[in-house]
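Sync notes, pocket subgroup
Present: LS, DG
LS reminded everyone that the earlier model was apo-only. Rerun requested with flavin mononucleotide included. Inputs:
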Amino acid sequence: MRIGSVEIGPGALLAPMEAVTDLPFRTICEEHGAALTFTEFLSAEGLTRGAERVVRRMWPSLGGRRFAVQVFGRQPEVLARAAEMAAEAGACMVDINMGCPARKVTSGQCGAALMREPALAATIVSAVRAALPASIPVTVKQRVGWSDICINAPEFALRMVEAGAAMVTVHGRTRDQGFSGQVRLGAIAAVRVALPKQIPVVGNGDVKTVDDYRRMKSETGCDAVMIGRAARGNPWLFRAICAIETGAPVPAPPSIVEQRAVWRRHADLVVEHATDKMRLHELRKTLAWYSRGLYGGADLRGRVFSESQPQAVIDLGEGFFAVLQARERARADTGEVPVADVAVRCLARHLRRRGEVGDKHCVG
Ligand SMILES: Cc1cc2nc3c(=O)[nH]c(=O)nc-3n(C[C@H](O)[C@H](O)[C@H](O)COP(=O)(O)O)c2cc1C
C-alpha cells in the first residue's frame, strides 16, 4: 500500500494507544508483521514546550524500522511545529488525532471535537502539510462522526484529503459511542467511496480475529486494517494477517514455548526501555496480557499485582509458563487430557461463542 510516497508492506497497522504503544509493544508487533506502528497521541503543545514526559514518548522504532508519530492539538502553528519535531525524530509519517473521545481531550476542543469544526481541521492539515518535507505524508485518524445525529465521516474525510491528508483511518464509532456499541462498517465503506482511489482508507474497530479482519475488508472495501486492543498480548494476529495478504497458509496458533519466548522478549524490552518509575507497572501489565486465556492465567494475574519487584514479576511469569510447558509435555507423552482441562476448554468455547474472547490461544 502506498501512502503518499511511502510504500508499506502487506499486513495490518498497529493503532496508536495511549500508555500502550510504547517502544517495547511496538517492537513486538513490528517483529510479528505489523506493517506500520504509531506512537500514542502526543500533545503538540507538550512537544513544542519541550515537556520531557511527552518528548520521551516519541520513540523511534528499533532497527531503523519506519514508524509514525501521532499528535493532537487544535492550534495549526503548534501542530505544524510538533510535526517538524516528529520528522526530526525520524517519523516517516505524521498522523493527526481527530478521533479521541476522552473528555480531557474533547473539552479542549481537540481529538474528536475537531470533527465538529471541519474548517479548522482542514487548516490544521494544511499547516502540517506545509511544515513537512514532501516525502513525509500527513494522515488523519477520525471517527464516523460526533454522535448519531452528526455522522459526517465521508465529507469530513474528503475535506481532510483536499487539505493534504494522504491517508485516512476511520474508527467506525461515533465520539458518543466511545468504545462501546457496534462498529459501523457501512460508515467506513462510505468514506472509501467518497475518497479518491489513490488515498488509502484504513478501517478500524473491533478487529480481534482473522475472520473480523476479512469482514472489515470485504464489507468496507478498505485498503488496510488497523488493530488496537486485540494486539495486546497477541502479536500473532499480525502474523496471521500477513499470511492472508501474501497468500500463505495461516499459521497455527503459537505454542506455549513460543508464547513464553515472546512474552519474555517483551518483558526484556520493558526492562531495557521503561523508566525506573514505570518498569514494575509495565511488567505486570505485560504478563497480564500474555496470560489471558491461558490455564491458570486468572490466578497469576491475581498474584502479579501483589509483587513489588520487577524481577519477582519476571520470575512469576517464568514459573507460570514452565508449568504450562510441563503440562503440554505430559499431555503429549500420555495423550491424556486432564479433567480440569476439559472444563477450561468448555468454558473457553462458551466464551468464544459469546464473543467474549478472541481466538488467540485459549486452552483447547
Ligand atoms: C487504551 C487505549 C488508548 C488509546 N489511545 C489512542 C491514541 O493515543 N490515539 C488514537 O488515535 N486512538 C487511541 N485509541 C483508539 C485506538 O487507536 C482504536 O481506534 C480503538 O481502540 C478501536 O480499535 P480496536 O477495536 O482495534 O481497539 C486508544 C484506545 C485504547 C483502548
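DG: The domain at 2-246 is CATH 3.20.20.70 (TIM Barrel).
LS: Residues 175 and 357 are 25 Å apart (CA to CA).
Action: DG to write up.
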